């Protein structure tokens, strides 16, 4: 039986926030290998992502709120061993997809460790840490999901979509850090959000998100799928409403850049984005 702290710090629920890239990639695959698509979902969302969360918590030993957890428990050595075991299982299962997929998984895990490991600690560098997150949670994940879910295991993955996936992650990630400036500073970590400041974070996120949606528009319009883009953009409108409302509150009082508001933003953004890409995936069945 695993300790309650281990289960909590693996943060399985956090995988929901990363689901949009998976759904986006699968929805664009010409011919889907259903069995492999399901296996990839399991590998990423029930093994790799939770393992990364656990390892990060083991290194950080947070005493203040972290993604999705208001009162994190202190990790034990068990968490370290469990995260290592989950990674091993993920790599073994990846071999059933393809060698390229396995290489991507190993690279993703290595980058995740380099991000958190105190001997390297990419997360303490605002730009390097930010680029590592958006590259691997965005473009690399899109590539391996698209490749692994395709019936022919194609390596010809739409580059514009890969960039858009990274920018979608990049347009939300700084907001997940906005309430942690002081806690991160005490740990010697300077996040991209801390570097930009409270107002700067909102401005930066708005610009990156706009660029992401612009690239998606170019991609969908290039394939004569204007209706799909309009549906996608419409389903994401609640995100913009909350974003600008929250930005207005923070502009008046930076105290509003808190854990509760951040979680509301994350949950709303995840629900809308997941539903949008899930709709595109279902749409395919009627074409």
Given as residue ranges, the uncertain stretches (5+ residues, pLDDT < 50) are none
CATH architecture verdict = Orthogonal Bundle
Count of separate structural domains: 1
Instruction: Give the overall shape, derived from the CA principal axes.
Output: globular
How many helices? The count is: 13
- Which structural category fits the helices and strands? mainly alpha
Major sheet: none
CATH classification, class level: Mainly Alpha
Rg calc:
19 Å
Average residue pLDDT: 94
Extended strand count: 0
- CATH topology title: Farnesyl Diphosphate Synthase
Helix percentage:
over 70%
Portion of residues in beta strands equals under 5%
First-to-last CA distance: 47 Å
| Pattern of helices and strands | HHHHHHHHHHHHH
Textual characterization of the structure:
- The protein has 287 residues and is an all-alpha fold.
- The chain has one domain: Farnesyl Diphosphate Synthase (Orthogonal Bundle), CATH 1.10.600.
- Helix content is 74%, strand content 0%.
- Helix 3 (34-60) packs antiparallel against helix 4 (77-94), helix 10 (192-222) packs antiparallel against helix 11 (226-235) and helix 12 runs antiparallel to helix 13.
- The chain is globular, with a radius of gyration of 19 Å.
- The N and C termini lie far apart (47 Å).
- The mean pLDDT is 94.
At a glance:
With 287 residues, the protein is mainly α.
List keywords for this structure.
Farnesyl Diphosphate Synthase; single chain; mainly alpha; globular; 287 residues; UbiA_prenyltransferase
């Amino acid at each position: 039986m695993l300790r309650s702290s281990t289960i909590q710090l693996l943060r399985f629920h956090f995988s929901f926030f990363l689901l949009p890239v998976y759904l986006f990639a699968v929805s664009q695959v010409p011919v889907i290998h259903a069995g492999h698509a399901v296996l990839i979902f399991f590998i990423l969302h029930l093994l790799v992502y939770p393992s990364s969360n656990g390892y990060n918590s083991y290194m950080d030993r947070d005493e203040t709120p972290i993604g999705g957890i208001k009162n994190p428990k202190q990790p034990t050595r068990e968490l370290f061993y469990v995260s290592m075991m989950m990674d091993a299982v993920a790599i073994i299962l990846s071999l059933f997809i393809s060698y390229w997929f396995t290489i991507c998984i190993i690279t993703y895990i290595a980058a995740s460790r380099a991000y958190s490991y105190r001997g390297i600690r990419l997360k303490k560098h605002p730009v390097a840490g930010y680029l590592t997150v958006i590259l691997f949670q965005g473009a690399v994940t899109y590539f391996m999901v698209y490749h692994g879910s395709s019936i022919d295991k194609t390596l010809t993955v739409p580059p514009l979509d890969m960039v858009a996936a990274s920018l979608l992650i990049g347009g939300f990630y700084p907001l997940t850090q906005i309430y942690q400036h002081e806690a991160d500073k005490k740990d010697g970590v300077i996040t991209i959000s801390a570097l930009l400041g409270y107002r700067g974070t909102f401005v930066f996120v708005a610009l990156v998100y706009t660029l992401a949606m612009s690239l998606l528009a170019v991609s969908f319009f290039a394939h004569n799928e204007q209706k799909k883009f309009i549906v996608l953009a419409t389903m994401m409108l609640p995100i913009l409403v909350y974003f600008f409302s929250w930005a207005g509150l923070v502009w008046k009082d930076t105290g509003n850049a808190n854990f509760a508001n951040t979680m509301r933003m994350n949950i709303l953004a995840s629900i809308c984005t997941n539903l949008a890409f899930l709709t595109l995936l279902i749409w395919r069945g009627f074409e």
